[in-house]
Amino acid sequence: MLIIGEKINGTLKKTAAAIAARDAAFIQDLAQRQAAAGADYLDVNAGTASAGEPEDLAWLIDCVQAVVEVPLCLDSANLAAIKVGLERVKYMPLVNSISGEARRLEGVLPLVAERGCPVIALLLDDQGIPADVERRLAIAGRILDCTRQAGVPDERIYVDPLAMALSTRTEGALIALETMRSIHADHTGVHFCCGLSNVSFGLPVRRLVNQAFLAQALAAGLDAAIIDPLDQGLINMLYATELVLGRDHFCRNYTKAFRSGKLFLA
Amino acid sequence: MLIIGEKINGTLKKTAAAIAARDAAFIQDLAQRQAAAGADYLDVNAGTASAGEPEDLAWLIDCVQAVVEVPLCLDSANLAAIKVGLERVKYMPLVNSISGEARRLEGVLPLVAERGCPVIALLLDDQGIPADVERRLAIAGRILDCTRQAGVPDERIYVDPLAMALSTRTEGALIALETMRSIHADHTGVHFCCGLSNVSFGLPVRRLVNQAFLAQALAAGLDAAIIDPLDQGLINMLYATELVLGRDHFCRNYTKAFRSGKLFLA
């Protein structure tokens, strides 16, 4: 599974302050610790500072690329910021994101098609986030029509099924799991990516719920996740679940991870 | 899920010694701690002392029943021991086990049919444990033919799909998971029960692998497990997985378990 390090996120207070103050040391520490923990991509989100976002994202990218050799996940709803990011990156980035919204399909899709970037596709549209599996599948179908028409192969699409808070809906995770299974059955080339922490919003011992969701999401086809690569419980669950699902031949990945000190109970 | 406490097991050295020495305090401590941790049944296994097993099991049962009010899981391959156990128990026990072996079907099945006990059914026969899903399903079919003919309703059968060590076979857990899914699809009344620790045999950080297997087994239909109810990681995973699978309405069980101090990261 691809691990996309989530920690450089300008919607969080401390990181927003570091971006505003151009505190490179703070950002670079987040980058280096996530890279050392094995992140495959580092998400860079400059926050929602409207007019200043492209400039902030450019600074973030330069700052991170000065210290680590890990590709970036350009995380913005701002087309200008995505454009600036695409000019700036050293390695092929993952773009976060397109969706069923007309604005995203018209603005971001041509850019990723032109550059050959992998892209995250959120299953929402101009009507918002659908409550049921059926309407999420319909949005997935419409997005795939557009990406295929734009010449983007399915293998570059990372569908985010949008797991919702269990505290507000008992089926909040199940709907995302069923959505992945259905899409996987119909479109075997498509990848899946999601954040894990939405499901545990408002609940106690959140990291435990995130772990349990990761285990089920891996079984449903998740092959990339935006997570904290320093969360030992998640890393443990990732290796152990791949093992249990029969995806780790001769337990090689699990035992190798153990020998390199990656697996332990806190 | 039903939790069957596994700790009173005479195949373990210390417990065997306690049984031989008639050390009631040792056994009763195991019983009380498991009961306090919420075990629904306590497994009692007197070891494989051949001729002495019925007498040892009778002592174990008296010893446990003197201090806790929890039904027992009579765990023996010895027909005479099962008979003695059935005479001795205060509450309706779970019998561990029948299988596709002629000896078990002829010896144990009539006893559980007569008493109305729930019973664990191991998917093995006189040829041993089958390596593939298909032959396990065939054994399950033959066992269910017999139990139905004996008048035992499917709801009293706890099929053990026999999860095998991942260290010797990459698909050791997957075969058990697929077996449960297939049986569940064809025979919705049947329950599933298994031990978790076989899968992790020979691997490092075994408790982690057991947790990951529990998460997948719950999704595949497991509704009883022979586990250590004092293993915090398993109890955490049990509640969090039921929650993620949409089986915990309004998160009531999870939040209640948290408030009563049952859920925490070590």
Describe this structure in words.
- The structure is a homodimer of 266-residue chains.
- Chain A is of the alpha/beta class.
- Chain A has two domains: 1-71, no CATH class; 92-230, TIM Barrel, CATH 3.20.20.
- Chain A has ten helices and eight strands.
- Chain A has helices at 13-20, 24-36, 53-65, 79-88, 102-115, 133-149, 172-186, 206-220, 232-244, 252-259, and strands at 2-9, 41-45, 72-75, 94-99, 119-122, 157-160, 191-195, 224-227.
- Chain A has an eight-stranded parallel barrel, surrounded by five helices.
- In chain A, helix 3 (53-65) runs parallel beside helix 4 (79-88), helix 4 (79-88) runs parallel beside helix 5 and helix 6 packs across helix 7 (172-186).
- The longest helix of chain A has 17 residues, at 133-149.
- In chain A, 49% of the residues are buried.
- The interface between A and B is large, with 40 and 40 residues.
